[in-house]
Write a structure and sequence with these properties.
Layout (H helix, E strand, L loop, with lengths): L1 H19 L26 E4 L5 E8 L2 E3 L2 E5 L3 E8 L4 E4 L6 E4 L5 E6 L4 E6 L12 E7 L1 H10 L8
Parallel strand pairs: 2-5, 4-10
Antiparallel strand pairs: 1-2, 2-3, 5-8, 6-7, 9-10
């Protein structure tokens, strides 16, 4: 009986430590020290983009104490894929008024899809304490009509609210 109890305790400890060290998806990894030097998370690639197949992808980097880009434009009524990573510590990303709530861990790419029903502005605060400037870490998600998004996309490869 003691052997069975010891085995069960060992299994609980092993699985607890194993799962605590990795995010649940563990799909894609990235080197957080070089993510902004090359690849999909360089500054020129951040923000919303229309992919060759017509889908919309948003790339965001979280770092103490900001999201880059600070404002994101997405179309209403179309599927949007978010790809988010961290350059330094664990952050959280929650888009107010939606069901989007994700952890952002350095070394991993968080990917999720959603569709925004109607145009409007949504605040996107960091919900994981990431240091003394945490309370100022937020971004804005601006949902626009599909026709307005298409018009903006014709004039820029990457969209942010600065356009």
């Amino acid at each position: 009986m003691l052997g069975i109890i010891a085995l069960l305790v060992a299994m609980v400890v092993f699985t607890g430590l194993h799962w605590a060290m990795m995010p649940p998806s563990r799909v894609e990894t990235i080197d957080p020290t070089t993510l902004q030097l090359s690849g999909e998370f360089t500054e020129a690639n951040l923000g919303s983009a229309v992919e060759p197949d017509g889908s919309v992808t948003v790339r965001i980097v979280g770092q103490q104490y900001s999201f880059t880009p600070q404002c994101i434009v997405v179309p209403a009524g179309k599927p949007v894929t978010f790809r988010v990573t961290s350059a330094d510590v664990i952050h959280g990303m929650m888009i107010m008024g939606t069901n989007i709530n994700s952890m952002i861990e350095p070394g991993f790419i968080s990917t999720f899809k959603t569709t925004f029903d109607k145009p409007g502005d949504h605040q996107m605060p960091c919900h994981e304490f990431c240091g003394t400037g945490h309370q100022a870490m937020w971004a804005n998600v601006k949902v626009v009509e599909p026709s307005a998004f298409t018009q903006l996309a014709e004039h820029a490869r990457r969209l942010t609210c600065d356009l």
